[in-house]
Design brief:
The complex is a heterodimer of chains A (226) and B (193). With 226 residues, chain A is of the alpha/beta class. Helix content of chain A is 45%, strand content 15%. In chain A, strand 3, helix 4 and strand 4 form a beta-alpha-beta unit. With 193 residues, chain B is an alpha/beta fold. Helix content of chain B is 38%, strand content 21%. In chain B, helix 1 packs parallel to helix 6. The chains are: A alpha/beta (226), B alpha/beta (193).
Chain lengths: 226, 193
């Protein structure tokens, strides 16, 4: 499928140093090995000005498949990702004809439960429906804090299986086939036991605040107790 | 008690419905003796969250980005009720409302606790709060309405809030209907007080 272009849209403020990029990068590497055209956009850069937004939308319009990758923020898409979707929908109303496109999302959250990504996945699907873009499905992942923005091959043992799981979805992206339920379920399996992730997480927060000599429980603002 | 109204009127929505709703909420609550702050987020400069958790590990409880979010967060902290107003955007919030919600991390602690069988973060401040979320949409859409209600419920779980109310109304609602809807939404408060 050498004549198609698959565009990775990274919705993390950490851009190329984010876990979202690390996850998407594995897929882009595989696509490029097979000769498929790829591109990457950092959404936080796209929304900085009208001009950058217009450039981004031109690039989005030229792609055959959109692969969104973003972290879960407060059960939802990060605000800049919503801003981009709003702009795409707004411009779509003005266009009479639209190229046939497909869309997939990779969503990762810092909580251990993969299911906490569900509302964000539902919202992406609704966007696709309203835009008349073919929805291929979403890969959802809990325990995203473990990746911590590292490339997956350097993120440690528990993250290694993700490399193979991401490579397995490449044919679906290229052929425009919806992801089977089994692949989605398999991708979302916990990277480690929940008790281990939360214990290490709590220890890390304490260690970092101790290192910075700050009180993690500080209440800097006035509040009125009940 | 204090209430903060976060008005997320978006670029692609009919602003009068949400602005009218905000004004009606404020009027009704003030009649009941609440102190109300109605914030129109489109008028505020709020940068995207930088995602580096500095508000947890470097300056706990304080965001390192100094913009209008400082004012919003101080209102949230001292409020017993937060009212979200937003066009239902693919089932979720508008980017205007979301830009402020992305930056509420300082009101939470970084640590993990179990709430209703799931892992979440505890509150930094002990206040009990309630959330009212009012969404508007042009055409009725069961799917997006369901997603919206579920999203608000999950947000409340994340902020350890049990007391929530959500409604989705049409953009075209007339004044009388809107007034009744808002009065009905606030009715449980009278029972609660």
């Amino acid at each position: 499928m050498k004549n198609q272009k698959i565009l990775l849209l990274v919705g993390s403020p950490k851009k190329g140093k984010s876990s979202s990029y690390s996850l998407g990068r594995i897929i882009l590497d595989k696509l490029e090995e097979r000769g498929t055209g790829t591109g990457t956009l950092y959404i936080h850069e796209c929304i900085q000005s009208e001009e950058k937004m217009s450039d981004a939308i031109r690039e989005i319009d030229s792609a055959d498949t959109l692969l969104f990758a973003f972290p879960l923020y407060v059960d939802h898409l990060p605000a800049p990702v919503i801003r981009l979707l709003e702009e795409m929908a707004c411009r779509n109303k003005e266009e009479k004809t639209r190229k046939e496109q497909r869309m997939m999302a990779i969503i990762n959250c810092g909580f251990p439960e993969t299911r906490q990504n569900r509302p964000a996945s539902d919202i992406m699907k609704q966007f696709a429906i309203q835009m008349n873009i073919t929805w291929l499905g979403s890969l959802e992942l809990g325990m995203g804090g473990f990746i911590g923005g590292r490339p997956l091959d350097k993120a440690g043992g528990p993250a290694k299986p993700l490399i193979g799981k991401l490579a397995a979805i490449v044919p679906y992206l290229e052929n425009g086939d919806a992801l089977p339920e089994q692949i989605i379920r398999n991708f979302g399996k916990p990277l480690m036991p929940r008790w281990l992730y939360t214990t290490v997480g709590n220890f890390s927060w304490k260690r970092m605040t101790r290192k910075n000599r700050v009180d993690p429980y500080a209440r800097p603002y006035h509040y009125r107790p009940d | 008690m204090n209430t903060v109204i976060l008005n997320g009127t978006g670029k692609d929505s009919r602003p009068d419905v949400l602005n009218r709703s905000g004004n009606l909420f404020a009027r009704e609550l003030e009649k009941k003796g609440w102190a109300v702050t109605h914030i129109k987020l489109s008028e505020k400069t709020i940068a995207p969250c930088c995602g580096r958790f500095k508000c947890w590990i470097q300056t706990p409880g304080e965001c390192v980005i100094k913009d209008d979010q400082l004012e919003v967060i101080q209102h949230i902290i001292k409020s017993g009720m937060i009212i979200y107003l937003t066009p239902v955007t693919f089932g979720g919030y508008s980017s205007q409302l979301k830009k402020t919600l992305d930056r509420i991390l300082p009101v939470l602690l970084p640590f993990f606790i179990k709430v209703s069988g799931e892992i979440h973060h505890p509150q930094r401040y002990p206040n009990k709060r309630r959330i009212i979320a009012l969404g508007t949409q042009r055409e009725p859409n069961d799917q997006t309405e369901r997603i919206f209600h579920n999203l608000v419920r999950r947000n409340a779980l994340n902020m350890n809030i049990q007391d929530i109310m959500t409604e989705v109304i049409p953009d075209s609602i007339d004044d009388r209907e809107l007034e009744k809807k808002i009065s009905d939404m606030l009715h449980p408060l009278e029972v609660a007080r």
